[in-house]
Amino acid sequence: MEKRSSTAAADTSVRPFRIEIPQADLDDLHHRLARTRWSAGVPGTEDWSRGVPADYLRGLADHWAGGFDWRGAEARLNAFPQYLTEIDGQDIHFLHVRSEKADATPLLLIHDWPGSFVQFIDVIEPLSRDFHVVVTSTPGVGFSGPLSSAGWNTGRIAAAFTTLMSRLGYGSYGVQGNGGGAWIAGEMGRIDPGHVRGVHVNGLVTFPSQDPADFAGLTEGEQARLERLQAFRDDKMGFNAIQSTRPDTLAFGLHDSPVGQLAWIVEKFKEWTDPAKDLPEDAVDRDTLLMNVSVYWFTGTAGSSAHLYYEMSHDPSAWAPRERGTVPTAVAVALPSDVTVRRFAERDHHVVRWTEFESGGNFLSLEQPERLAEDVRQFFAELG
After folding, report:
1. How far is the C-alpha of 100 from the C-alpha of 362, rounded, in Å?
2. What structural domains does the chain harbor?
3. Measured distance CA(384)–CA(381) in Å, rounded
4. Does residue 114 have a cis peptide bond before it, meaning omega lies within 30 degrees of 0?
5. Rounded to two decimals, what is the model's pTM?
6. How many CA atoms within 13 Å lie on the side-chain side of 258?
7. Side by side, which strands form the sheet with 131-136?
8. Would you give the distance in Å from CA 171 to the centre of its chain?
9. Considering only CA atoms, which of 229, 201, 206 is closest in space to residue 344?
10. Segment 119-129, tens digit of pLDDT
11. Which end of the chain is more exposed for a tag (fewer CB within 10 A), N or C?
């Protein structure tokens, strides 16, 4: 499963890695898909308002079983040098693609849930023209999982990733993250400002405080984002409530049923991509979406990834007041979908660049890879 690569770091604790899913696991997936016991649903509820429609999910599952080429996807992922290293008792999986420019800035990329390192597959090449690219798998997700212990909250993950970059020999580097990855990226800047050169985020969730002044003078667009945030909290937080309270109970179903895992993930790609797109594959390539779901399935990390929500929910420090970040920060905002309010972002971070995307959603690295890569490139160029 491991093969030495010319790009391996000198540290012997970093082990080269290749994805090699046993054929028996692939056969088992196809067998389970073929034997799915389908829910009948309720007549007249065939849209997405109550979750993933049965007809849509059947079609996607059929493609997963008969049209999707996992071996081709595996080869595509293995084209990037991959490694494992143990940090704080947990294996961390990452890609390390060095630029041809010897003096390129190192750049760490951090994914969101229910994404994985797969969500950066389209930005690695354009970013590697100017950066030494390191793409992590968050502890508990994909080939960084399952979790070896409890307690993997945002601060612990951020500390592990600063250790990773130090282990790779990078004394100064940038970080990019989206959604939950943006939280980790920002925390890395707080705990290691002497080494984190800049932080670029998208899909950043910002919250007002209890001060009524937070709502004074908001633009029409900012008011719409706050309304979007409230609608999300009222109607789209079911996944969060379950994963934050009973991740183990959920895990039994998702770990045993590939269609259950597929539905759990694809719902978020519907709700968190550009709302102008009718279906998830209108925003994100269908086979890339299935590649991401397959990583969760083959690694059995539905449960351990859910535990990350539990840890954050039960971590008193996660919501405690903290000092404003000092590391230069760039915020990319997808206007149709994001809930980011600039004054709240500037309250918490040292925002020096603000870019608004007219289209897109939380997964800009898949929805608009070239545009996102260019925004990252410009930000770090401006830092000098």
Report:
1. 30
2. 14-32+51-383 (3.40.50.1820)
3. 5
4. yes
5. 0.95
6. 28
7. 14-17, 82-87, 90-97, 131-136, 105-110, 173-178, 196-202, 328-334, 350-357
8. 25
9. 206
10. 999 999 999 99
11. C
